[in-house]
Structure formats: structure tokens, C-alpha cells
Amino acid sequence: MTEDNLTPEQKELIIKVNRAVIKAREAQREWSEKSFKQRASYLKTVHYRISERTQSISQAIFDDVKKPIRAAIGGDILPTLDNLKEMMKNGAKVLKDEKPSASLSQFYIGSRKLKIIRQPYGVIGVIGSWNYPIYMNFDTICAALLSGNTVVWKPSELTPRTNEIIYRMFDELPNGVLVMINGGPDAGKAVSQSDVDRIVFTGSTATGRKVAAQAGARLTPVATEMGGKDTLIVTENADVKIAAQAAAFGITNYAGQNSIKPQRLLVHEKSYNRFKVLLKEYMEAVKIGPADLPSVQMGPLINDRAVALADHLVKEAVAQGATILTGGAPATEFQGPFYRPTILENTTNQMRIEKGDLWAPVATMRVYKNESEVVKLVNGHPLGFTSSIFSKSIQKAEKLGQRLDVGTIMINSTVLSVADAKIPFGGRRLSGNMERHGVWGIRDMTRPKTISISEGWLDPIYRGTYKFTKRWQIVVIALKAGQYNKAFKAYMSRRLAREE
User: Fold this and answer.
1) Which of 197, 227, 143 is nearest to 24 (CA)?
2) CA distance 324 to 317
3) Helix, strand, coil percentages, rounded to 5, for the chain
4) Is the pLDDT of residue 99 over 60?
5) pLDDT at 5
6) Strands in 322-457 per DSSP E
């Protein structure tokens, strides 16, 4: 889109974003010069405010996206408190200078003292998501701030109340350290194309690709957390009851509106029939209804469009040969965008419902005979965040997990492990290219810089005091390669030449 094609509103938005970036850049130098302890002192206040305002935060999340209060507290607020605490406690360690020893085997480049320092990128453009508006936004913002960056933040336009609460929590930060830009896709595009030093995007794969393309003109690095198509694998010796309970929870938790829920169930042929019966029972027992009722386990989807997409893909798959085990239709007895927990059987890789991420309580289920089939299905898919493996043999499950190209393997559990602040979280392939959570997130917000200091007493080559002749080069290379006979012959030929 050329400047001539922009509306007055779009032009005004670009100006606003550019001013925000300039403001953040002016603040960044002073902010980065503060010690980690000084930066953390600001976030300790934020940490306290989160716990103090739990009720108003969870209510705002409910008002914005109809997430049940319990899910807002358990899935957003509690992990945020743990994650921020982990960052403040151990973040300074990963930012310390490293001082590796120079290798004596590289004598030909001289004697040096080495130091590797980690520096912030500068100004980080954060484009946030709506499904976990506290956890996902705080995770990125706090990691960026603690590592010395300043932030231009474009939150989701679907969570306006929550965004304002978040922003007010940081009101003691120096001016310009965190700047919020409200708006929809045009605001996100303006941030992506601005003069920030890095973009951190959380959202769908389709939108993430657009963001990366928009940032490409400036070669701005883009870190992403995008869609998932995660698998839950039930082995031949699994506790089928626990696996079915976990699957039903993962599929219906927050109405399936997260990228790490199990969307593909791969069940060994010996476990399939029993698992199928139990899963149908547990899925149909999930209590659906308005999210503000205490007894409700699954509330609505974000909007009618999400329901229509889920229903369309389910009906399309059925028309192509899939069968419905349970669900498969909107829950029309409730007012609002509700969809029944759904399991499809007999799907194929060619069906659209198997190809992309679907934010709805829908999963497909297939039977498998051997682990090679599982590895092919998981690693052959363009999306890969997590996989859950249910097995009574932990050792076998670990071996299978090592063969799967995903970011996190959960054995005998699903979904919940990724809230652990001590482990990295990130996807593979089109699911993303960043690491977040705790110290991993802080390290990801910095770049290494090497300082190499010559000690002067062994810089012979460019000083001309030592001739590293071709014959000696052959000797050294042969020694490094373990070719001792060749090295000896090269040395002797030099010695014989000298004697002659």
C-alpha cells in the first residue's frame, strides 16, 4: 500500500506510531544503563499490583472475551505472577558477562582476553493476543523491560478493558519506557513497518506471516508465537482413563481457544476402542453455558464468526468422509457463540480441518499401529508446539518424545506444563521461532556482543615477526585432523630442507 492509497486515519496512525518509537528510543538509553536490580524494582511494584487487583483483572478479561473467572485466574493471573517472579529472581544471571578462555590451539590468531556481553535490542514492538491477555502480554513486556529494552505495545483490540488495566500497572515507569498503541490490524501494520529494532508477535500463523512480510522491508527481526496443531498420543500401555480425561480437559479448556490444546488424537490400535468410549463420555459430560456461572466448565467462543468457521470445517470434513463421534454442531440452546465439544474420526491429511489451527473445542482422532506413523504425522505437519504422550513406560515415552519435532513434550499430562516458568516455551516450523518464559524469555530479548582484547605478546603474523609458512600450516592442520603421520612427514620435510 503506497502512501497515496492511505486513508487520513491510517496516515495519522503511522505518525502516532513513529512518534511512539522515537519516544521509546529516547528513553531506552537511560533505561538500559540502569542495573537489573533497578529495573526489577519497578516490576516488583507491578507484581504486587497484579495480586492486589486479581478481582478487577479477571472481571475485565471476562467482560472482554467471556473467559470464565476461574480460567482467567488459573490460566492468566497465577502463571503471570510465577513467571514475573522467576524473571526477577534469576534474570540477572543470564545477563552476566561471559569470559571464555582463548584456545591455545588457535595460537595463530594471537593471545586474547575474551568477553561476551548481552545487550538489549533497543526498542521492541510487541503485538499481543487476546486469548491470554495478561499472561502472554506480561510475559513479553516484562522480559523486554528487564533486559533493558523499551517497548511499543500494540495489544489486541478485542481486550480494551484489560489493556487499560495492564497499562496502568506500569505507570511508575520512566516516560517512554512502555508506550501503548491502540487499534486493529492497521495499528499492528504500522508497528511492524516502524523503526523498531525487533518485533515480537503472538497470534495466528496467517497474521504472523503478514507481520513478518511487513517488517521485511526494514529487515527487522521478527520473533513469533503462532498457531499450533498439537497431538495427544495414547500408547498401547497407557492409562486410558487418565488419557481420556486429560484429552477432554485440553480440548474444552477455554472452549479450545488456545494454540497448545490437543487438536489431533493419535491412539494405538490396542487402546483405541476403550479410549473412544471414555472420551465420548467425558466430552459429553462437560457442562456448557454462560461463563459467569460457577458450575460451567466451558463457555462461549470469542464471536459468531469463530462458531461459523468451526461448523463449516466440521461439515466439510464429514462431506469428505469423516464421521462425528460426538458434538459437531453449534449449541443453539444458549444465547451467544457456543459450539459443542466435538470429536471427528476417519479424517485424512487432505482435509482442511487437519491442516490448520482451529480455535474451537474440536479435535480429530486416528488409530495408529506403530511409532513411525506417529513421528511421520507429527513431524510432517507445518505446525508444532507441543505433544502429549500417555504411557506407563516413561522411558519409552521419552524416547518417542525425542523423535518428535515440537517445542515441549508432556508425558501423562497435557496443556498445563507449558505454564511452568522454569522451562522454555516455543514452537517449531510455522508455530513460531522464539523462546519465552522466565530467564529464557529474558535471554531471548538480548543479543550477544563479543569483545576480544589482544594481549600483544603473541600477534606474530601481522607483525611480521613470525612466518606461518605453508609447510607449517600443513603440519598444524594435520595435527588438528589427527593425521599424525602426515604431520610428522611435513615436519621432517621442512627439517631436511633446512639441513640441505
Assistant:
1) 197
2) 10
3) 50, 20, 35
4) yes
5) 84
6) 323-326, 342-345, 362-368, 383-384, 386-390, 408-411, 428-429, 446-454
Give the separation between CA 67 and CA 79, rounded to whole angstroms.
16
Position 1 scores a pLDDT of 46
Looking up cell 516455543 gives 426
Task: Give counts: helices (H), strands (E), the chain.
Answer: 19, 16
Pairwise CA distance, residues 64 & 302, whole Å: 9
Statement: residue 253 has pLDDT above 60: yes
Please give the radius of gyration of the chain, using alpha carbons only, rounded to the nearest integer: 27
pLDDT band at 496 (very low <50, low <70, confident <90, very high): very low
Site of grid cell 561471559: 98
Reading the block at residue 374, the C-alpha cell is 506417529
> In sequence order, what are the residues at sequence separation of 6 or more whose Cβ sits closer than 8 angstroms to the Cβ of residue 135?
75, 76, 77, 79, 80, 83, 419
Supply the DSSP string of 167-202, one letter for each residue. Answer: HHHTTTSPTTSEEE---SHHHHHHHHTSS-SEEEEE
Euclidean distance between CA atoms 477 and 479, whole angstroms: 5
Q: What is the pLDDT of residues 71-92, one digit of tens each?
A: 899 999 999 999 999 999 999 9
What phi and psi values does residue 153 have, to the nearest 5 degrees?
-110, 120
Instruction: Render pLDDT for 135-164 as a digit per residue (tens, 0 to 9).
Output: 999 999 999 999 999 999 999 999 999 999
